Amino acid sequence: MKKTVISVVGKDKVGIIYNVCKYLAGNQINILDIAQTIVSDWFNMIMIVNIQDSEKDFATIADELKQIGEEIGVNITLQQEEIFDMMHRL
Amino acid sequence: MININEVMETNAMIHEENLDVRTITMGISLLDCISDDLKTTCDKVYEKITTSAKDLVKVGKELEMEYGIPIVNKRISVTPIAIVGSACCKSSTDYVEIAKTLDEAAKTCKVNFIGGYSALVSKGMTPYDEMLIKSIPEALNVTEYVCSSVNVGSTKTGINMDAVKLVGEIVKKSAELTADRDCIGPAKFVVFCNAPDDNPFMAGAFHGVTEADRIINVGVSGPGVVKRALEAVRGENFEVLCETIKKTAFKVTRVGQLVAKEASKRLGVPFGIIDLSLAPTPAVGDSVGEILEEIGLEYAGAPGTTAALALLNDQVKKGGVMASSYVGGLSGAFIPVSEDQRMIDAASCGALTLEKLEAMTCVCSVGLDMIAIPGDTKATTISGIIADEMAIGMVNQKTTAVRVIPAVGKKAGEVLNFGGLLGYAPIMKVNEYSCDAFINRGGRIPAPIHSFKN
Predict the structure, then answer these.
(1) C-beta atoms of A87 and B254 within 8 A
(2) Min CA distance, A48 vs chain B (Å)?
(3) Coil, strand or helix: which one is B96?
(4) Chain B residue with minimal CA distance to A77?
(5) Nearest by CB to A83, which of B1, B3, B67?
(6) Chain A residues within 8 angstroms (CB to CB) of chain B
(7) Which of A41, B234, B396, B415 is 20 to 30 Å from the Cα of B83, by its Cα?
(8) Residue B65: partners with Cβ closer than 8 Å, 6 or more residues away
(9) What is the 3-state secondary structure (H, E, C) of B200-228?
(10) CA B36, CA B427: separation in Å to the nearest integer?
């Protein structure tokens, strides 16, 4: 299973997690882990997900999440987990 | 599993500190394109490059998207063209035809640069090498993407002073031919001592004859990341300083390793090396000069600069070597004046001189890089500057290079502006005393002794 990391950063408000999760559920993307923190009113969340069962490919999911982010006023990015693994794990 | 702080740290490096993969360079051997007919050679060269590298830019963009890290340049390096054209080129004009073919191939593949319009003449020049060298000014004048280099010396062979004399004239002529375009010609031309076969950085990249048919080499960067890490250890001793640089270099290089392995897999081309270099850009916060200031200097060029650069270079290598399975190329800190905002500032205010830069090149990667000099500098003086730098490389068993740009019609203190990644350069003062008699002697300087080291 190839893990993918969703990062959400932006001003905190109602419904951020709801909107992201609604999209993931609707596209057969399973959430493996969620961590969230608020640093001086800035909402930071990472989700580790599995996109393998989704009918959509990486690029499409990345685009659509970015668009959702724009609609609710946060920045959403999708990255393969390997970049973090390589940098922080031996 | 990865935690939130690690994700935030990586993304801060990318978004706030300009961490990027500076280049994915595909090396392509053109030895199988050699023929005794110019048109046939050009056709084969075009075909081989455009077939081999057709997916290079596409894969680069995919990796950028999937890992969320910018890959600034996608480039191609080829077998030194002096060799490729040796059987079919009867004149310098014939070599220029091959340069045009390289340019077309680069356009078709949509890469940023193609390197390898080169000759390796550290001991002697064949008539073909000489024809190629003499064609360089015109080749750089009529092409957009082609980069050129000449290796004029090595620790094993000494310095070919006939070639040094010739390339001094070539640098000058190239500047004159491109005077209407801010003398861009010599910005795409490097003179080397101990040139590596697998360097992914321009303008000096070529695909050495010891390499495989095709190879992927990756250059990482990240001066901004090192600078930010050092901000957290202000006032600490050298042990802490060095450990911080080392750990940061490790992280930066791991990203390069990931991108290189993945690019190699997707393109079906073997992974060659990672070049561990701190390569600055004119962007604020992406500067080696800033790191030197953070280490404790008012400006790059102040007393202590050579020592600071020596430790920086060494720690980058120590951290990077463990992060990658193969390290090669130039690997160190680059100090191109025009491409580094704080180096530009240091040169403009007089803190950094040509002589200090020369001393700095003894302990770091490459050499006198992207330095604008007065347009009326004599060809023999340029050859003298090149000879000095080559001697440093030869004696210290390291790669050194010279990329100076005579600013036609301009004097010391004025500014030459190239734009883009090449930036702008304050024109630096050159020692005006003559070395004519030295350069005009001809012949070569013998290889140095490898014992009795002092």
Answers:
(1) yes
(2) 9
(3) helix
(4) B68
(5) B67
(6) 5, 7, 9, 32-33, 35-37, 44-46, 48, 58-59, 62, 77-88
(7) B396
(8) A58, A59, A62
(9) CCCCCCCCCCCCCCEEEEEEECCHHHHHH
(10) 44
**Amino acid identity, position B194:** N
Report the run of H or E that residue B134 belongs to, with start and end: helix B127-142
Nearest to A5 by CA among A64, A84, A73: A84
Band of pLDDT at residue B34, cut at 50, 70 and 90: very high
Going along chain A from its start, the domains and CATH numbers come out as: 3-88 (3.30.70.260)
CATH class, B220-444 region: alpha beta
Of B333, B442, B405, which is closest to residue B182 (Cα–Cα)?
B405
Q: What is the pLDDT of residues B106-164, one digit of tens each?
A: 999 999 999 999 999 999 999 999 999 999 999 999 999 999 999 999 999 999 999 99
- B255 and A46 within 8 Å at the Cβ level: the answer is no
Average pLDDT over residues B291-304: 96
Please give the pLDDT value at position B279: 86
CATH class of the domain defined by B23-193: alpha beta
CA distance A85 to chain B (A): 7
ipTM of the complex: 0.90
Report pLDDT for B245: 94
Q: What's the whole-model pTM score?
A: 0.93
